[in-house]
């Protein structure tokens, strides 16, 4: 017996982009691989599902010098089944890695990724997860990261509609916006304007504000977005965030960032007719911000799903004093307080 489960790592509604399908259990995958031998028709149908998603991530169970995940990817792109690959996940899982782990994988991937992408004509989704490298060997990994990002500027990727980048520093995004030194180099705007989902993560725990404008440039150039997700580890300010005028988001997510009420309202107002889901997780705000955020229903009266989780609340205004009185502690960590309880705190 075997089964195929439809699933996706992206927050887009199913009606917008068909979910990526892959086999969820190793035994089920092996069974399906054997059943592909039954006949040619079934082989074609099974192969389309078996090779739709390729996870070429490194985890602690792998011997890094052998790079089994990249070896499997290399075998796939050299086979007739490369046409079925729609989603590619590369990078690292959420573990700590040694300097050698990072350097070896980055060197191999940066030298091969462009050739891999050229052989994947139907690729729709790319997810690149760079580890949170210690400052001790940050420079040794930077060259590899920049090389991987630059490969996005030399491969057309006509079917790419979802892109997720998890990088240690905002400065890495500058690699995507270098001058067009050659006519063979594709402006990143040509790739971004086709995206329907964009996920940007900055996982370094140092000041990332100096190059945040390049992150905003990516969002502004993505003129077909229906889903946007931005997160950081160090409360990156996203007050410079602007959407292209014709963008109509259905899903919007922020995590561990700073944002002013005016910037948030501008984004929500632009998408008030299309928005279906808003997530604000561990966000930082100014004085008096909480009351306005909780009045978001007035901006999006038909919003089906709204998730709110805030960082430590500072009592520094009349609004926050009211909240402090109702929650009994002006330094309450309201990220652990139910949203309905917060709403109730303002009911006089």
Word description of this protein:
This protein has 348 residues and is α/β, with parallel strands linked by helices. Among the domains are: 1-9 and 16-50, no CATH class; 248-348, no CATH class. Helix content is 32%, strand content 19%. The chain contains eleven helices and eleven strands. Strands 3-4-5-6-7-8-9-10-11 form a nine-stranded parallel sheet. Helix 1 runs antiparallel to helix 2. The longest helix is centred in the first third of the chain and has 20 residues, at 99-118. It starts with a strand and ends with a helix. The model is unreliable at 1-25 and 313-348 (pLDDT under 50).
Structural class: alpha/beta
Helix coverage percent: 25-40%
Main β-sheet, spatial strand arrangement: 3-4-5-6-7-8-9-10-11
- Our Rg estimate from Cα atoms comes to 22 Å
Number of helices: 11
Distance between the termini: 59 Å
Q: Give a quick account of the main beta sheet: strands, pairing sense, barrel closure.
A: 9 strands, parallel
InterPro entries: LRR_dom_sf
Organism: Penicillium steckii
Protein name: F-box domain-containing protein
Produce a short descriptive summary:
The protein is α/β, with parallel strands linked by helices.
Salient structural properties:
alpha/beta; 9-stranded parallel β-sheet; globular; disordered N terminus; disordered C terminus; LRR_dom_sf; F-box domain-containing protein
List the helices and strands and how they pair.
Layout: E1 5-6, E2 21-22, H1 26-35, H2 40-50, E3 53-58, H3 68-77, E4 87-92, H4 99-118, E5 125-129, H5 138-150, E6 162-167, H6 188-192, E7 197-202, H7 212-221, E8 227-237, E9 251-258, H8 261-270, E10 277-283, H9 289-294, E11 305-310, H10 318-327, H11 339-345
Parallel strand pairs: 3-4, 4-5, 5-6, 6-7, 7-8, 8-9, 9-10, 10-11
Antiparallel strand pairs: 1-2
Helix pairs in contact: 1-2, 4-5
């Amino acid at each position: 017996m075997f089964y195929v489960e439809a699933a996706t790592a992206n927050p887009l509604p199913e009606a917008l982009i068909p979910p990526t399908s892959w086999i969820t259990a190793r035994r089920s995958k092996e069974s399906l691989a054997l059943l592909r031998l039954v006949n040619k028709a079934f082989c074609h149908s099974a192969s389309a599902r078996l090779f739709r998603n390729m996870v070429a991530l490194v985890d602690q169970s792998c011997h890094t010098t052998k790079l089994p995940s990249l070896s499997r990817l290399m075998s796939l792109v050299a086979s007739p089944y490369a046409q079925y690959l729609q989603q590619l996940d590369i990078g690292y899982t959420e573990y700590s890695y040694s300097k050698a782990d990072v350097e070896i994988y980055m060197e191999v991937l940066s030298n091969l990724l462009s050739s891999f992408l050229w052989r994947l004509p139907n690729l729709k989704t790319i997810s690149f997860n760079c580890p949170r490298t210690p400052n001790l060997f940050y420079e040794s990994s930077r060259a590899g990261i920049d090389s991987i990002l630059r490969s996005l500027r030399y491969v057309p990727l006509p079917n790419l509609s979802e892109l997720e980048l998890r990088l240690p520093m905002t400065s890495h995004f500058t690699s995507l916006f270098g001058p067009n030194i050659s006519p063979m180099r594709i402006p990143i705007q040509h790739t971004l304007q086709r995206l329907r989902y964009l996920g940007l993560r900055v996982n370094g725990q140092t000041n990332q504000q100096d190059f945040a404008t390049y992150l905003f440039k990516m969002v502004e150039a993505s003129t077909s977005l229906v889903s946007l997700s931005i997160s950081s580890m160090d409360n990156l300010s996203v007050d410079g965030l602007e959407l292209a005028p014709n963008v109509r988001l259905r899903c919007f997510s922020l995590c561990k960032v700073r944002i002013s009420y005016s910037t948030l309202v501008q984004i929500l107002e632009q998408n008030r007719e299309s928005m279906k889901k808003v997530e604000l997780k561990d966000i930082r705000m100014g004085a008096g911000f909480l009351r306005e955020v909780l009045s978001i229903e007035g901006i999006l009266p038909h919003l089906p799903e709204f998730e709110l989780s805030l960082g430590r609340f500072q009592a520094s205004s009349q609004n926050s004093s009211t909240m402090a009185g109702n929650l009994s502690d002006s330094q309450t960590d309201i990220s652990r307080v139910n949203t309905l309880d917060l709403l109730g705190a303002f009911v006089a």
